[in-house]
Amino acid sequence: MTFTALDAARLLDTCSAGIVVFGVLVAGTTSIGRAIWLVAGQAVLLAVAVAGVGFATGDTHLVFGGLLTLASRGIVVPLILGRILRASPVRSERDPYVGPRLSLVLAIVIVFAAAFAVDGYALGDATTSTLSAPRALPVSVAEVLTGLMIAMTRRKGLSIVLGLLVFENGLALTAFSLTYGMPFVVELGATFDLLMVVVAVAVYARRMLSVFGSLSTDQLRNLRG
Amino acid sequence: MNELLVAILLLAPALGGLACLRLRGRFVELVAYGSMGMSLVVGIGLGLAAMQLGHVSAFQGAVAIDALGAYILVLTLLVSVLALAASPHYVRHELVSGAFRPRDESHYYALFLWFVTTLIAVPLVDNLGLLWVIIEATTVVSALLIGINRSPDAIEAAWKYLILGTIGVGFALLATLLAYASSVGALGASSDALNWTRLMSIAPHLNPNLLRLAFVFALAGYGTKIGLAPFHTWLPDAHSQAPSPVSALLSGASLLAAFYALTRFHLVAAAGLGAGFSSTLLVAFGLLSIAVALPFMIRQEDVKRLLAYSSIEHMGVAVVGLGFGGPIALLGVTLHLALHAFTKATLFISAGELVQHYGSRRLSAIRGTLYAAPVAGGALGGGILILGGLPPSGMFVTEFAIILGGVTRGWGFAAALMALLLSLCFVALAVHGSRIIFGHSGPVERSGAVDWDMAVWLAAPLLAVAVLGLWTPGWLMDALVSIRTVLGVAGV
What we know:
The structure holds two protein chains of two kinds.
Chain A: H1 5-28, H2 32-57, H3 60-87, H4 100-117, H5 137-153, H6 157-179, H7 184-212
Helix pairs in contact in A: 1-2, 1-4, 1-5, 2-3, 2-6, 3-7, 4-5, 5-6, 6-7
Chain B: H1 2-20, H2 25-53, E1 55-58, E2 63-66, H3 67-97, H4 102-121, H5 128-146, H6 152-187, H7 196-201, H8 208-226, H9 234-241, H10 244-273, H11 276-298, H12 303-324, H13 327-358, H14 369-372, H15 374-388, H16 394-408, H17 412-438, H18 452-468, H19 474-487
Antiparallel strand pairs in B: 1-2
Helix pairs in contact in B: 1-2, 1-4, 2-3, 2-4, 3-4, 3-10, 3-13, 4-5, 4-10, 5-6, 5-10, 6-8, 6-9, 8-10, 8-11, 9-10, 9-12, 10-11, 10-12, 10-13, 11-12, 11-17, 12-13, 12-16, 13-15, 13-16, 13-18, 13-19, 15-17, 15-18, 16-17
């Protein structure tokens, strides 16, 4: 049995659907621990999609890209976030600016709006490849917007970072859909940057815990004017 | 040969930073000076070569430096040296006062050198994707520097910077991807389609809709790092809470790096779409930035926030000038970038000295510095006047050139609005500046003997800025003109 381009396209569609569902669930949960699992799940699906397309097309650089995504976004990042969460006294998003139910509805609206507004195939010349990675473009736009929405409407530092990571997953999927994988050195650099961002987040989370006693951004409103 | 030079330029501060992690006291300073010095010499050599030849490339075109890149590179290096020279004094004071733990000294120098490494890498790379990676790296490294002393305010500033900076720069990645997608029709799925040199060469064949979208995202993304309103909210916090030499680097060099990145997108967009689209957006957001910064400068109570808001104003001026285009305004922008970098770096360093001397950041406390701390106080007060555009300083001349250039290019209304806003900015800064020098303060301890080292470090850049308005040496003028040629591709 061989893994054909058609199989890869199905795999890509399945993973995209999963990514969308996970994104909506992140928006709808107040448990930070569950959100970490969901964001990690998104990353794993992203990795599978990229590597799958790589296998089907025989493009080793995509396979490596998928493995890199799995190792960084799927494993290392969630582990670091989990450590921060265990050190933190509060493990749920208690009163976000927009409640979980409304966020859930907003996330669903975003998905439909993105699917309606962004037609991957309408990009015309960007779809010359037979496999048509741009079919994932509406999903990636939806994740970018969902991530932004989560980051803007939460109070806890860790939830904001999770929103940021959904946003970053969306960006990675956009990169994959539009360019079919960037040059490998760029991908390597972007992964390194993401890990550094999460390390910096961990550093400041520790400082916030020791100085303020919590990760709530309510304490961060001293600087004005 | 070029490969070796580029390698030394980047590896010296990168490895120097690594060594700093294990060192303390005099040794860490020596290593920092040594690696910075090596980088400076090589960088200036490369910069001069690029100016002379018009273009230097290395590593099979992965590194591409034109006159604009060379200029940004040399300015970044000079500002870094200035900021590094001010660091030992600052760090020792923080160690004595207990704001730094002993290990923080090593971390400070290591992060400082890594920040410099990322900043000087920006104007070197040809690939817009790599450019994005490096700019994102500047954010992370500098975020770690901002909160190094663990004060609640610094942690707040660093956190906001980290989150907003990462999101902002994320939009710049979208811009980069869209620029790539816009080239697929002309180039196919080619691997060098992210190189700005390649994009410039095929600009008229790029997909205009995608290119337009790419520029909008670049404006939001790199605009966040430049501090363009309304994406500027992190900037006053981060620039004011960072250790003062780092503030100098943030305002003097990291804004330049982001401006450089936005300029590349503007040039591609202008070459592909005609100048109208991107220029109009640049002028609009530049003016908005000046207008947003103005009230905060008037009512400001914190000396470092005053300087930070003035950075927003000045980057606004440069962005407006870039949007105006044309020979006069572009010449003004080019010189303005250098003058602002030097003035602001010097001001942050002297403000840092005064904050340590007075034990307060409040402008109502830091007064009468002519008596209490003549060197740093004179530099701060005088520098603020120059910053406002006091004629005949260089700052006045460049701002005047940008306004004049705007008028000659048919941007009469925008130029008039800018002139009005800048005069108000001048009044605000002049009031603050004269109070700092002459005003009445409570009883303060007078600083002892004049520190001549510091006097020279602070006075030299300010004098240069003051003089350059009246007299620009021939070689500098030649350099400025060749940079303008790069900027003027869009249609002079």
